[in-house]
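WARN retry 2 of 3 for item q-0093 after timeout on previous attempt; input resubmitted unchanged.
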Amino acid sequence: MRGKVMLSTMAATLACAGATAQERTGYQQIAAGDFAGARSALEAESRTYPRRPDLMLNLAAVDVRSGRLTEARDLYRSVLARPDTGMDLPNGAVASSHDLARTGLLRLDSLRTASR
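OK item q-0093 returned
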């Protein structure tokens, strides 16, 4: 099963695969800026599916937006430690979960460099 993802402005991801999946992956909350609600939905779903890269990537997106950069970095690294998975993007393209995680890590590095 591939998760559908979309890059955010922070190059983290938002999963989107139908209304029910949007609720479980925090997509609607992230899009609305409700990061606490998204965290709650993602943590609940992650208890059932702890290894799903779309959930880890979305939680990393929430962490970046919430200033929890260390936690986001750990999640991106967790995605890289798992098998690579194809992620459907809203434009119909497919991206690698590893590529998305690497992009997220690069953005975190550039944020850290910019804040020095």
